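Quick one: Crotonobetainyl-CoA:carnitine CoA-transferase CaiB-like acyl-CoA transferase from Mycolicibacterium moriokaense, structure tokens please.
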Amino acid sequence: MSGPLAGIRILEVGVMLAGPYATMLLADLGAEVIKIEPPGGEISRQVGDSYFASLNRNKQSVCLDLRSDAGRERLGELVANSHALLVNMKPSAIKRLGLTYEALRKFNERIVCVAMTGFGLDGGDDPAFDYVIQAATGVAAMTGDPSGPPTLPGYSSADNSTGLAAALGLLAQIVSGRGGQVDVSLRDVMLSQLNYRASAYLNDGAAPQRYPFGAHSYYVPAQLFSTADGVLALFITHDAFWKSFAAEAGIEGFPTMAERSANREEVLAVVTAALAADTAASWETRLRPLGIPVAAVRTLPEALEATPEMVVTAGDFRLVGSPIRIAGYEPDYRPAPALDEHGLTRIRPLPTSPERPDR
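--- reply ---
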């Protein structure tokens, strides 16, 4: 079975993580992704081979100097025979290189142009790396122990989230049957992901606060707990979960969510004492058959060893595979391309002018 995006051609002028991640997800689903790289290659090639491989499998590479007339002319030829172009750069560079819909519509009225920036295509050129955006949008301020400094997660949450949003926007505009500009910023994506936190402040004036052990602001108990050996994540979101957990842990009282929330400190004290009597691994084994959301804290190597079905091979590299499972379709994981491996002379024309799927 061919991929659900077979026949869709996407051009990528992407750097580092956010843009390449977006197009890799689409390539895994069968889209033809042509990575347009400058002379010398996209900068993430300098980070390391495994880094580049983790974000650029299943793509083709064409080297173009978009600062030259010849490079822009060749880009136009590709745009004329493509469905979409995705770029993540500073707004001034996107406009200067002619990577907007207004600049490219002369080649293809139905081209979808996705701009991924820090603060929007008209939001200026202030540097907008992942950690900077987490700091600027309140994510860092609400993360970490309340007695310590703000904390950043151990991975690029803003870049990855923006890649997902950009891929969604790109596909939505293709399905619409219209060309046009799609504008996705890291700042806006991270703010949108603070949904219920932002709503609590906007509607009730409740500014988010940090709780020890990453505790949830609404649900109790829902946080990390130390055990006799290891750390356990326990997430009790409704009374049925609590009833089953309390029976297994030998805890009495606090039967309703309202009571547990009103007596947060007391509840956490009795739960902490109960969980200290056994190991995190044992609690996971005991509680999971009861349907209770629980997991022992694992390292990344341990998590990968526990999910071998998510590890795939692309060329010389073992990578985490696509998270999107479609019945009857299995991605063919091809290695990330060498610089200009496919060249313009090796890019096949699409059978007909790029058509949009029926809505």
